[in-house]
């Protein structure tokens, strides 16, 4: 096996190990960055919903309280305001959703599905948990769900959701008396859940990863070519030249041409040493001939 082959095998092994390590680390980093981007978008959406809820509770509900005695107005419900504000967003981004899922909701549309119920039970069983992130695979692609507990922390909520007898008749006429009652102060009754698609950020991460790996491979190939050229002109060709001359000298050939490689590196030093040895050998042969 020649020097060039040994050199290239070592370089290829080093590149393979480096490429595998770079691929693993860069893929993990890019996927993590994509997930953080999606999670940040979900948190912004959640804060937007909280803002709509707070505005409704502070400014809209007090203005419509008197009308509630004659007619139930869903616009007075902060959860309704948050959900409705997201309908405008879903016109352009239908995969982005916001839901206030509950185990015992007043509106049947808010009833928690199986996986949403699991999230609610997680909040109930772990009161210190204030946020939960769940990733799910769906027919439309991977989704990230950001959930926060929905609890009863204001006694005014029990006016409509405590005892059935205390609930406004205008509300029970619409939703009935079978659901959305019996809630207790401090109880976790549901969860606010924002759903954000992950397909696009992950696809961007994959495209960036592919581009990075192609560029890394191209840099290696360029480096391999340049190092082989350098190896050929700096090491292999001078060594082959010295080897040829040494063979001629060992066979007793007279008038072997001088070869001194210019420079101050190790190969140049070797050529100078060989030339001195050749001259010494010629002098010794002449002395023996005399």
Low-confidence stretches: none
Largest sheet: 4 strands, antiparallel
Described by the principal axes of the CA atoms, the overall outline is rod-shaped
CATH architecture grouping of the largest domain? 2-Layer Sandwich
Number of domains: 2
Strand order of the largest sheet: 1-4-3-2
- Indicate the CATH topology of the largest domain: Beta-Lactamase
Q: How large a portion of the residues is in β-strands, by DSSP E?
A: 5-15%
Distance between the termini: 44 Å
Number of strands: 4
Q: Sketch the topology as an H/E string, one letter per element.
A: HHEHEEHHEHH
User: Radius of gyration in whole Å, from Cα?
Assistant: 39 Å
User: Which whole number gives the mean pLDDT?
Assistant: 83
Total helical elements? 7
Which SSEs are present, and which pair or pack?
Layout lengths: L2 H62 L13 H15 L4 E6 L11 H12 L6 E7 L2 E11 L6 H4 L7 H7 L12 E10 L1 H52 L15 H24 L1
Antiparallel strand pairs: 1-4, 2-3, 3-4
Helix pairs in contact: 1-2, 1-6, 6-7
How would you portray this structure in words?
61% of the residues lie in helices and 12% in strands. It is an alpha+beta fold and 290 residues long. It has seven helices and four strands; from the N terminus they run H-H-E-H-E-E-H-H-E-H-H.
Q: Which features does this protein show?
A:
290 residues, alpha+beta, Beta-Lactamase, four-stranded antiparallel beta sheet, 7 helices, 4 strands, rod-shaped
Can you describe this structure in just a few lines?
The protein is an alpha+beta fold and 290 residues long.
């Amino acid at each position: 096996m020649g020097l060039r082959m040994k050199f290239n095998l070592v370089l290829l092994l080093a590149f393979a190990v480096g490429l595998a390590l770079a691929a693993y680390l860069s893929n993990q980093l890019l996927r993590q960055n994509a997930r953080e981007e999606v999670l940040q978008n979900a948190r912004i959406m959640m804060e937007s919903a909280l803002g709509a809820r707070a505005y409704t509770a502070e400014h809209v509900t007090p203005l419509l309280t008197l009308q509630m005695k004659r007619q139930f107005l869903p616009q007075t419900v902060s959860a309704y305001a948050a959900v409705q504000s997201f309908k405008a967003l879903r016109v352009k981004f239908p995969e982005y959703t916001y839901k206030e899922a509950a185990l015992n909701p007043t509106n049947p549309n808010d009833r928690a599905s199986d996986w949403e119920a699991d999230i609610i039970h997680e909040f109930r069983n772990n009161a210190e948990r204030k946020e939960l992130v769940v990733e799910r695979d769906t027919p439309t692609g991977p989704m990230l769900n950001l959930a926060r507990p929905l609890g009863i922390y204001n006694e005014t909520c029990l006016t409509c959701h405590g005892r059935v007898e205390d609930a406004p008749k205008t509300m029970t006429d619409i939703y009935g008396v079978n659901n959305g009652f019996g809630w207790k102060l401090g109880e976790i009754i549901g969860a606010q859940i924002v759903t954000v698609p992950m397909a696009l950020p992950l696809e961007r991460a994959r495209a960036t990863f592919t581009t990075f790996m192609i560029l890394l491979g191209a840099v290696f190939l360029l480096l391999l070519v340049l190092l082989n050229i350098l190896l050929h002109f700096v090491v292999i060709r001078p060594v082959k030249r010295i080897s040829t001359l040494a063979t001629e000298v060992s066979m007793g050939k007279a008038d072997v041409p001088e070869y001194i490689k210019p420079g101050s590196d190790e190969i140049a030093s070797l050529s100078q040493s060989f030339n001195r040895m050749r001259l010494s050998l010629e002098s010794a042969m002449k002395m023996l001939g005399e």
